[in-house]
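Transposase (Psychrobacillus glaciei), 133 aa
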Amino acid sequence: MDTWSVIIVQIQRFERGIIMNIRKKTKKRQLTYEQKLFAVNEVRLKKRNRQDVADEMEIHINSLTGWLKLYREHGEDALHSHYEKSDLIEHTEELNRLRDIEKKYKEQLIQNEILKKFQAFLKENEKRSASKP
């Protein structure tokens, strides 16, 4: 299909009230195990159309297709996130700890710089007072 054909089809859809579903790009969201299982069950048990379920849940059909494949090959447990919450919490705590250390380090650098300037100031004052009779 050439470019003009696509444009004509989109104009016809627009005129009939079928507007393209255009969403601005948002931050990738992580769906829960329960949400993934619900989507898979809607397709498998209730025999719903994959595209309808994907549209309803505002996910890409490829995500749903991937979950269905995981479910078929490995069962329900495959729908769990590959990031365990305890790992995420541990990494978050470690990141916060490192940020605190970095903040203290920067404060120490500033204090050292102030002390060096103060020492230079004292030396300059000593030289001035030593040179005065």
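The chain has a mean pLDDT of 84. The helical segments are 3-16, 33-44, 50-57, 61-74, 85-131. ok done for today
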